[in-house]
Specification:
CATH architecture of the largest domain: Alpha-Beta Complex
CATH topology of the largest domain: Aminoglycoside 3'-phosphotransferase, Chain: A, domain 2
Radius of gyration: 21 Å
Number of strands: 10
Helix content: 40-55%
Strand order of the largest sheet: 1-2-3-5-4
Length: 366
């Protein structure tokens, strides 16, 4: 059964997730937000609000991702040591493996960090520190006696790019195949990307898809605690992949703000100059400093930064590839993103200083 605005209340009542009086009194509103999933926000005035996610199709790939999100949420809620993270992840209320439905608490009067940054075009330190604190709350080695057998322990697909032909990942997209073919035709880039697979060290719980859109912020105050949502790629993996997602979010905001019709331009339009790297340096430094300060002692900050930068480059390439899945041709900013990634891979230390504004004093613990 595919949920819709007509049958969702009956489903939630049947599962004990909505009180009957809430429906009878009309004390709720239903907002459908279909994307690649069937999404609903159930807004209640006197009861907790709900977020409902269902896959549109019931193939093993789609349902497996939803199951992984449920497994990640259960792992966080039941495993000792993740108490701080549990407070920053919306509570899992229901998972239905037959109808492939997942229900969590919904945080009202919020927006994503992506929406906040795009609309406000302000990069202050408080939101960056909040994101660092969330990541550090679960970036520690998983105890040896902890059951993690339900996690696939998979490497990001971009690290295996060289194992496949150009059209194997996204066979329906010509532009995608062309872009992957270009990457694989560059010997130095291909070699640098292949080395990243050797760096992958799965030691901790990871979110797997850290980016601004998955951090939820209060609309009332940028200083309020944030939430990390959408754990579809939750796994046991390399924590540097998550921190790389934050740095990549800043660089992608810059790289994809250029005018695609002016591929040789090096200047953003006046309306988008807030996304110049220099304007974001203060927030980037705040994120990195606070993340280091929150980690367990014994971490080598130099090695951590350089590895994070290399993974950031891989994520830049991944974003460029995924960005042409549904378009007819490769855009200038996709190529710009790949060039930036190549430069980072060649000299991550220089990229840390020039692109991100992180110089050696920021490597030490606060």
């Amino acid at each position: 059964m595919l949920l819709n605005q007509e049958n969702i209340c009956h489903y939630l009542l049947q599962k004990g997730l909505l009180p009957a009086e809430t429906v009878v009194d009309g004390d709720l509103s239903i907002m459908a937000s279909p994307t690649r999933n069937n999404l609903f926000r159930i807004l209640c005035n006197r009861q907790r609000s709900l977020f409902v996610k269902q896959t549109f199709t019931f193939g093993p790939a789609e349902t497996g991702i939803l199951r992984r999100e449920a497994d990640s949420s259960l792992f966080i809620s039941r495993t000792p040591g993740y108490e701080k993270l549990k407070q920053r992840v919306p509570a899992l209320l229901h998972y239905d493996p037959q109808q492939h439905v997942l229900v969590t608490e919904y945080c009202r009067d919020t927006w994503s960090a992506h929406e906040f940054y795009m609309q406000k075009q302000v990069f202050s330190e408080a939101p960056a520190r909040a994101q660092a604190e969330i990541l550090a709350s679960f970036h520690f080695p998983v105890a040896a006696d902890t059951d993690t057998s339900f996690f696939p322990k998979a490497e990001p697909w971009i690290l295996r790019l060289n194992d496949f032909g150009p059209y194997e990942f996204f066979p329906q997209s010509t532009a995608n195949g062309q872009l992957i073919s270009f990457i694989q035709s560059q010997p130095e880039l291909k070699t640098l990307l292949a080395r990243l697979r050797e760096d992958w060290t799965p030691t901790s719980l990871v979110h797997g898809d850290v980016k601004w859109i998955n951090f939820i912020m209060s609309k009332a105050s940028e200083d309020a605690p944030q939430y990390l949502v959408d754990w579809e790629l939750g796994d046991i993996g390399d924590p540097c992949w998550d921190t790389a997602g934050i740095l990549q979010s800043y660089l992608a905001a810059w790289a994809f703000s250029f005018d695609n019709q002016q591929p040789s331009s090096r200047q953003l339009s006046p309306a988008l100059q807030a996304f110049e790297p220099e304007k974001m340096h203060r927030a980037i430094r705040a994120f990195w400093q606070h993340y280091l300060a929150c980690l367990q002692p014994g971490t080598d900050p130099d090695a951590l930064l350089l590895k994070t930068l290399r993974f950031c480059a891989a994520r830049m390439i991944q974003t460029a590839i995924e960005g042409v899945v549904y378009v007819a041709s490769i855009q200038a900013n996709n190529m710009r993103s790949i060039q930036i990634a190549h430069n980072i891979l060649k000299n991550p230390a220089l990229a840390a200083e020039k692109l991100l504004g992180i110089t050696r004093p920021e490597y030490v613990y606060a």
